[in-house]
Amino acid sequence: MTVLSATPDTDALTLVVVADLAAAPDRAWNLWADPRTLERWWGPPTWPATFDEHDMRPGGVARYYMTGPDGTRAHAHWTFTAIDEPTTLEIEDRFADERGEPDDGMPTVRMVVTLAPGGTGTIMTITSHFASADDLAQVLEMGMAEGMTLAVGQIDALLAEG
Amino acid sequence: MSRVTYNHMVVDRFHGDDPAADRLFQALADATRRDILRRVLGEAASVSTVAAHYDMSFAAVQKHVAVLEQAHLVVKERRGREQIVHGDIATVRRAGEQLAALENVWRARVERMSAVLAEDDAAAAQRHDTSTPHPVAPDRRDGRPTGGTS
Description:
The complex is a heterodimer.
Chain A: E1 3-9, E2 14-21, H1 25-33, H2 35-38, E3 49-54, E4 61-67, E5 73-84, E6 88-95, E7 108-118, E8 121-130, H3 133-161
Antiparallel strand pairs in A: 1-2, 2-8, 3-4, 4-5, 5-6, 6-7, 7-8
Chain B: H1 2-14, H2 19-28, H3 31-42, E1 45-46, H4 47-51, H5 58-70, E2 74-79, E3 82-87, H6 95-129
Antiparallel strand pairs in B: 1-3, 2-3
Helix pairs in contact in B: 1-2, 2-5, 3-5
């Protein structure tokens, strides 16, 4: 079990996920800091993420897209709002158009990631903040296809195991 | 086609007793419908505006919109001579369920993070085991040069 706790707060519209990772904080930091490493875990195997741009410094942006099984691309845009290596990272994540430009009409998710030595190596806390219930609903509605496909992929694996 | 059939199988196995989930799953199983949904969640649009984005007949697009509507993913309303489609945020589930869904996304991500760390540990151990001096350039999986002088 690497997720120690997950605490949704429907009033504050936050989700706090606490995880124990078997690596020192500097290696855990690299999961976010190196785009090629990030690509290995951000999207599920059926919706892998590709980061075209990843400028991790305060005010820097990242552009990525996730590719579905049928080739559909879902684009998104990050702004790094705070960085304190290797302990704190703040990102504003929003949907983007095909050119990777953020869509102002779409909700923004603010993610705060903190890393501290502990557990089997690092305790990583990821807090997702939503501005409104509508924003939360919209983000999940958009992510639903990914979730569905993920479920199908997992079942696929189960069936393959026979 | 096989994809839709496959999804049906999944639906039968996991949501067979829930017609609403069945409709939802079926509605989202199609790439065009997901794309239409993405468009109208961002901004309401007429069916003809939506249809202009696709290399298919107006009637075919209208049919896709109808499937989304039956799954309560979009709402259609008549405005003058046009039918306006928008994402049906009002009917999406309660915030608690939404956060639970997001929790699943993050649980899966954390599992993948751990897998990445474990894979890299295994790769490093293997490199260590076979660490006889190598005459050619060291191989890095990301293809970037190693060392500070290159």
